[in-house]
Amino acid sequence: MRIVWRFDHAVAFRPHNLPNDIATKLLSLMHRLQIKFAAVDVRLTPDEEYFLDLNPSGQYLFVELLTKIPLSERMADFLMRS
Fold it and tell me: pLDDT at position 1, please?
């Protein structure tokens, strides 16, 4: 089986702050699953947000490259505190 993975430059990635209730629910789920990191996929639509995926070994470098958010630096800080 051949797996091809590449990020789609046609899809817009931009920073977005989740509403507090959604962030709290995601953190609660992570706590219940006993995971400290997860890449969370959320689809933002004009009407509402949809939770798609919570991946405890998710990729994030492409998001850092497309958004200029220093995720690797934040991950390093997190790991040094843990």
Answer: 63
